[in-house]
Automatic annotation (TrEMBL):
The chain crosses the membrane at residues 20-43, 55-82, 94-112, 153-172, 192-211. It comes from Alkalicoccobacillus plakortidis. Keywords: Cell membrane, Membrane, Transmembrane, Transmembrane helix, Transport. GO terms for biological process: D-methionine transmembrane transport. It comes from the Bacteria. This is Methionine ABC transporter permease. Residues 17-211 form the ABC transmembrane type-1 domain. Belongs to the binding-protein-dependent transport system permease family. CysTW subfamily. Pfam families: BPD_transp_1. It is found in: Cell membrane.
Amino acid sequence: MDIPHLIEMLPTMWSAFLETLLMISISTAVAIVIGFPLGVVLFATDRGLFWENRLVQSVLGVFVNIIRSIPFIILLVALYPFTNLIVGTTTGPVAASVSLSVAAIPFFARIVESSMREIDKGMIEAAVATGATPWMIIKDVLFLEGRASMIQGLTLTVISLVAYSAMAGVIGGGGVGDLAIRYGHYRYDNTIMISTVVILIAFVQVLQLLGDSIAKTTDKRK
């Protein structure tokens, strides 16, 4: 590895990492704000629950499954017109965060739904029997009982977004993926290629450790 060249490229690598961080931060925030309520609705509209509505549950389920089944690289290109409408461009980290958000929302919504299905239904029934409103059930039962699992799911979502962000960089999204292609692949620079891989691996490890730690501290079963 060419150490002097690596030192010379450090500012560029840091800038690329910040772009990746920006993409992931925006898409994670959107996934939480939209994906969490969507996951709650997917769960609560199922049979025998307090918002039972099979039509809503089926329509939302099909929509979520369709988005999840589209390969991200195809979704990224297909959303070019929507991205251009929202942010006025199809290149750069902010533009890439639009497609990342669309991919992350249904992914996290299914995780939220699965986390809530792990909760003992007797607790939900008991809350309904005591006159708890849907909001109280969501806040005091579903969220509190499922938060550790949801945090682990959110960690998985963020790690998936790291991989997706690198893919977005290949077609102009910026970030570490763009750096690896432009400087590493096109210029046959093994130092940059290896360095970008190390950066992404280290970033994922930190995210996993942080997510596991937070999940453990919020798990009421321990």
